[in-house]
Known about the structure:
Layout: H1 2-74, H2 78-104, H3 107-133, E1 136-138, E2 151-157, E3 167-172, E4 175-177, E5 180-183, E6 185-190
Parallel strand pairs: 2-6
Antiparallel strand pairs: 1-4, 3-6, 4-5
Amino acid sequence: MSEQSTESNEPIEHNESNFDSSEQSMVDQALAENAEEKTVEQRLAEAERNVLMAQAEMENFRKRMQRESDQLLKYANLPLVRDLLDIIDNLNRASDSAKSEAAKSDASKSETSLALLAGVAMVTQQFTTVLAKYGCKPIESTGKQFDPNIHQAISQMLSAEHAAGTVANEVAVGYMLHDRVVRPSCVIVSTGAPAN
């Protein structure tokens, strides 16, 4: 009987070891499925982050392109404005010349010169108005603090009426298109009152 009991014990032990290994494989399979679920969840979370980042980058790209497009449109007239400023300068020179001629000539010639001067002044004013309509305005300089961003100093001079570092005289008018300098003002900067 002892032989039978050992024989009967063996299969039981064998069954228990089968049970242990099958239980272990079920645990391993459950852990593997759990790990697989975690990796799937991690991959899903990473994919969602990537989608959000791509959407944010696309939105930033769209905004940047819109800003660049707006800037291009805003300053598209810059070359044309630069060319028109030369015409305004010539009209101002013609006005100055007509004024000096009117002062030198007799009364009959001065009436004609004054009429011509008035016509040139009207055209100059019309040019200035049209430029202002499109955002191009002259830079105010005389009496203002010298700013190297908008002024180009060509000389210095003593001035009793202007403090040191202030624009005493404007030689050539500067212009800005919106907030960008088209041409700086050529100015003479005061060094202060003469020493007594």
